[in-house]
Specification:
single chain; 138 residues; alpha+beta; four-stranded antiparallel β-sheet; 4 strands; 14% strand; elongated; disordered N terminus; binds iron/sulfur cluster
Length: 138
């Protein structure tokens, strides 16, 4: 994921990233919401702990914030030699540590974040206001 504000450090960068940011979540693409039911479905999803939703450029994603079981206490990967391709291909040049944010267009960290976005950016009317619950992540 691209970042514009780089603090790239070729020497032991990952050792300074505690705990390894890129090993503490996974994300997958979802369909862009089109109608009220779609938005209600996303509100339901983000009502769950450790869940956020983001838009990167035009694409929507769900992000689950939880730690990989193979991230060891010393911040190293227990299966490094046979880690999955997503890990092998993850670049340290433009990663979660080297920028101040993920470069997202929008990042909804709570039910309220998404609810406010819906109210301000769509025609769908939700009568209830912010709940005060969350955020689900930093
Ligand atoms: S690749 Fe980036 S986010 Fe992942 S552990 Fe290294 S510095 Fe941290
Ligand atoms: S498999 Fe290893 S590199 Fe990949 S997320 Fe887990 S701890 Fe990180």
């Amino acid at each position: 994921m691209p970042n514009t504000k780089s603090k790239r450090d070729d020497t032991h960068q990952c050792e300074k990233c505690l705990p390894a940011y890129c090993c503490n979540y996974f994300a997958f693409g979802i369909d862009e919401p089109e109608d009220r039911r779609d938005y209600e479905s996303l509100l339901w999803k983000i009502a769950h702990e450790n869940t956020s939703i983001y838009i990167y450029r035009q694409d929507w994603f769900i992000m689950i914030h939880n730690r990989c079981n193979f991230l060891m206490p010393d911040n190293k990967c227990a299966i490094y030699d046979h880690r999955p391709y997503m890990c092998r291909e993850h670049s340290t040049e433009s990663c979660e540590y080297t920028g101040d944010d993920y470069g997202f267009t929008e990042h909804f960290k709570s039910y309220d974040d998404l609810l406010i976005y819906i109210k301000e950016n769509t025609k769908f009317r939700f009568k209830h206001g912010p709940t005060g619950v969350g955020p689900n992540c930093l």
